[in-house]
Each structure stands twice: as C-alpha cells, then as structure tokens.
DNA sequence: TATAATTAAAGTCAAAGAAAGTCAATAAGT
DNA sequence: ACTTATTGACTTTCTTTGACTTTAATTATA
C-alpha cells in the first residue's frame, strides 16, 4: 500500500542509482503525467524526501525548457556534516524527527542497520520514561532497551 | 477463551512466521475491519504483545498510504544470557557498572567497537543531564551524544 | 531591433482526504 | 476487587489536489 509519493521517491532513487548517484534531471510535468498525479505532488516528494537533510540538493528552472535537477550529496566516506546535524537536532527533538535523522544516516551508509536500531531504541519514549528523577534508573532503562534490540 | 486480542496476536505472529520472521506491514483499518474490532484495539495488541521487551519493534506512518510495520528482532538467541543481563542491570545502574557490561559484550563479540561507543555515549551523565521531565530535550542530548562519538 | 504578447514551464499554499495515535470510559474475565 | 479487553470520540500526521503565481523562452508586432 505504498503511496504515490513513495513510488515516486523510489523512482528517483533508482534513476540516481543508475546514474552512479550523481545527478538526474527531470521535467516535473512529465513525471506527474507518468504517475498520473498533480504536478505539485512532485514538489511534495522533493520537499519531504530529497531535502538537504536527506542528503540531496535540488535546483530547478521555470519557463520553456524548465526542469528539476536532483543531486545526491555524497561526500567521500559518506560523512555528513557534523555541525549541520547537531544544529538540526537542537535542544529538543521528537521521536519521529529523531527517526528521520537516524534513517537518513543509515541511508547514507554512515551507520549500519544494527547501529540504527540501537540508536532508535534509545529514542523510544518507553526508554526515556523514568518515573523518578533518577539518572541511574533512566540509564538502566536505556541500556536494557539498547541491548534488547541486539539480543532478540 | 481466546480474546480478540489473542487472535490478532496470533495472526501477526503467523504472518511473521510466513515471512521468515523478518517484518510485516499492515494497515490498521484493514485488520480492524477483518477482525471486526475498533482500530485502536490494534494499538492495544501492539502495546501489550509486540514491545521491544517482547522482541518486536514497531514503526508506523499516518496519512495516505499509512501503515504499521512490525519487525521481529532476530532471535539467534542466547536467552539465558539475555535474561541474566537484564537481571544484572535491574532497575538502576551507574555509569561504571554500565561500562563494565558494555565492555563484556564487546569482549564476547556480541557488539562491535562502534556499537559499544554508541551505547556508552547514551550512558554518559552529560547525556542524561537535561531535565528528566522533558523527554524531547533528553532525547536531543542523547542523540547528539551518540552521533558525536561516531565522528571522532 | 526592441518591446509586447503568448506560451511553457515550475512554485506556492491552503483545503480536503486518508490514515494512525491517544485516552478515558466501560465491559469482561479471573 | 483487580486486571485485562473493548470501544469510540477526538487529535495528529501525512498525502493528494487544484487554483493561483512566478519565471523563462519564444513569437509577434511596432
């Protein structure tokens, strides 16, 4: 039951793959027609799945011969920009936002599947639910959560 | 005397079985309709039977094309060791004790060096320093801590 | 040739639609 | 009595659509 947006996302990523993850150029209206959706949905997909945070860069031009260019920001050794990440996280973050960041790191092959799982385990509400104001209790919850994902 | 919740639990577990215990993706409303129950009952089943402690991991998405993904955390299980560990950790644990456990896991090659680093980062007092009553702040501290160790 | 009009794109934004999440009240088992 | 299930009203999040705007290239006109 993948949404149309999911399908379009996959389509772009496959095109990029075929192109050695460099850059692809598309025509918004063509793609929209191909997937039988409104053109603005293409923008939606770009916004929600191809932002700089996701490791992509978008350029475009309007008017005759207009197009959209998607570039994959692939630094050598897949190292994302540390300070950008720290900035993005900021002083507080929800579980969903945290997942997005972790997934992006995984997709950019900076962390493994297992590493992602460990980190997600520490982001769980249940892991952070310390009844008393006790750091040692919190630590226990966290450690158990992280170990659980590895052992099961 | 199997309750509807029990039946749904079984249903999910059979689906997972068929899928080699990897992961299944369902639509909450579909399942609810199939079992003729309220959609929120699906959440109840997930909460009470598919938590991380039970060896499962849940992710979901709302909106169009929304779904719930149930992942079975692989069971190459050394269950006794797991339970011993959980016991050893107990309800609270100091940073030093936590390090000892993590180091032991590393020695026994259950986790990699990097994985150990990530887990230790989450055990730091500084990561747990933020007001414990604000989960989002705590989460941000933790995530930043865990990512930081990967960059050094 | 310089400007105006036309056409061909892409961008924006808000409303409607489609899921899933939450929580508290009730019901059913033990 | 106490714990576990069930339900439903309400909330939040994500997707889809379409009307309207902006920009660029091309064509027509003075």
Would you write up a description of this structure?
- Two copies of one chain form a homodimer.
- With 152 residues, the first copy, chain A, is mostly helical.
- The first copy, chain A, has two domains: 4-72, Transcriptional regulator CtsR, winged HTH domain (Phenylalanyl-tRNA Synthetase, Chain B, domain 1, 2-Layer Sandwich), CATH 3.30.56; 76-151, no CATH class.
- The first copy, chain A, is 54% helix and 11% strand.
- Chain A has helices at 4-18, 28-34, 39-49, 82-89, 95-107, 113-123, 135-151, and strands at residues 23-26, 56-61, 67-72.
- A three-stranded antiparallel β-sheet of chain A has the order 1-3-2.
- In chain A, helix 5 (95-107) packs antiparallel against helix 6 and helix 6 runs antiparallel to helix 7 (135-151).
- The radius of gyration of chain A is 19 Å and the shape is elongated.
- The mean pLDDT of chain A is 87.
- Chains A and B meet through helix 1, helix 4, helix 5, helix 6 and helix 7 of A and strand 2, helix 4, helix 5, helix 6 and helix 7 of B.
- Chain A binds a DNA duplex (30 and 30 nucleotides) through residues 3-5, 27-29, 37-44, 48, 60-68, 96.
């Amino acid at each position: 039951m993948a949404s149309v947006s999911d399908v379009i996302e996959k389509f772009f990523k496959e095109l990029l793959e075929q192109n050695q993850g460099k850059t692809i150029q598309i025509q918004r209206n063509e793609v929209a027609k191909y997937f039988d959706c409104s053109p603005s949905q293409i923008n939606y997909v770009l916004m929600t799945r191809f932002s700089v945070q996701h490791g992509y860069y978008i350029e475009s031009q309007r008017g005759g011969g207009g197009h959209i260019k998607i570039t994959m920001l692939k630094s050598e050794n897949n190292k994302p920009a540390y300070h950008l990440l720290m900035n993005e996280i900021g002083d507080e973050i929800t579980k969903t936002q945290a997942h997005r960041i972790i997934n992006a790191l995984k997709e950019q092959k900076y962390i493994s599947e297992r590493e992602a799982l460990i980190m997600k385990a520490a982001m769980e509400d249940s892991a952070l639910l310390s009844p008393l104001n006790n750091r040692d209790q919190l630590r226990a919850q966290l450690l158990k959560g992280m170990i659980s994902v590895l052992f099961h």
